[in-house]
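To: structure subgroup
Subject: Chain for Friday's discussion

All,

I'm putting the inputs and outputs inline so they're searchable in the archive.
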Amino acid sequence: SSIALADSGSYRVEVIVFRHLFTTTEATVIEQLRGFSNFPDLETSHPVTAFPDDFNVLANRGTSSDGVWRRLRSSRGYRPLLYAGWEQNQTDYYPPIRIHDQQILDRQLRPPTPIMVADLAAEDPLAAYRSTFYQLDGSVQLRRSRFLHLFLDLEYRLATAMDDGAGPAIEPDWDGGEQYAVYSLQQNRQIKTGQWQYFDTPYFGALVLVTSIANQ
């Protein structure tokens, strides 16, 4: 699994996030959601402005990942939630990459400092300070040093008035405002290429395939 002397090339990263349909685990209830908007987003129009030109977002599932997706979808105990894929080279540093679904729970202004500077020429003068919070949100990072490591930091969140289908919803705290039930998956693991990696919690999990691609 050592890659210290590996030739320059690319890694193809494919991520499938799935839910366990029959679970009784309890969520952590919080009042403020974590934001992941400081990470580059595969879903935006320009997700890789700080990345090398050879970074490539995958539009479609590969053959192997499509088979995994179909098996999860047809199973009784699991439900696939999200597919994300990209290619990054083997020489540059890449920060955590944000992946999320399309179910928006909240939008907030979260300035990093007490003073906000509005761009009056822009359609949305405060766009730089707006954060969007999704039901499934988080980041994935593939880092290469002596070994290859994968870092997952994902959250599945529900507004407390919602019912996720696995049981009754948590009652809202009417005195304290909105609350959220949060299930977390935070794992860091040394991995090998060409093998599906299984990251799991009692509520949801992820399957990740990293493939090494030699330069043509």
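Points worth raising on Friday:
The first strand starts at residue 9 and ends at 20.
Residues 1-6, 167-176 have pLDDT under 50 and may be disordered.

D.
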